[in-house]
Amino acid sequence: MKTNTLIIGALALSLSFSACQNKASKTETDHSDMDSNDMDMDSMSMSSGMKSGMDKMMNDMHQMKMTGNIDNDYAMNMKNHHQAAVDMAQAELESGKDDDLKKMAQKIIDAQKSEINELQSFLDNHKNPEKNYDPAMKEKGFAKVMDQNMTMMMDMPKMDQSSSTDKHFVQMMIPHHQSAIMMAEGFVQFGKDPGLISMSRKIIADQKMEIDQFKKWSE
Predict the structure, then answer these.
(1) In the chain, what are the domains?
(2) Distance between CA atoms of 197 and 207, rounded to whole angstroms?
(3) What totals of helices (H) and strands (E) does the chain contain, helices first?
(4) Of 13, 23, 37, 46, which sits 20 to 30 A from 63 (CA to CA)?
């Protein structure tokens, strides 16, 4: 009888120890899953500002009603284009780690907010512009430039969700700048307003320089 009691006690202790081990193992697994989920959430959070900026720009450009005036249509599109750059740069400031990239982001915000104000001022002073091109004639002239630019934006690379905010910023800003340069170069060729043409030349020079800086960072 005493022997049976000892056996039963030992068996209970063994089962209790086994249960504790299983519980600990499960806890470790749960923590591992939680860490993995946290990393996924961090990656999603880091990319959300970049993606939302691009999505808003594309939506605004798709919904924009062209006036048929080269200067006005350029000003409207470049204003939205600049706003996307500002939004992405702001996401870099908030979540990025690289000091050099954050300095570039702040520079982009300052420069492009200033140009956004200039573009808006131009639009405010040109409410009923005279038509000087057909936006539907996408085979030539400024309409072709705008169509090619839209196609380029649609073909921008998808963000690598496993990358950092810094890499997302560089990954998105290079083609975004290239698109702005394409549009600005087209406007220099077909645009009419001297002030906007001067701004476009500055956009081309500034953003080509920034593309070189982004590429050097990526090396």
Answers:
(1) 48-218 (1.20.1260.10)
(2) 15
(3) 6, 0
(4) 46
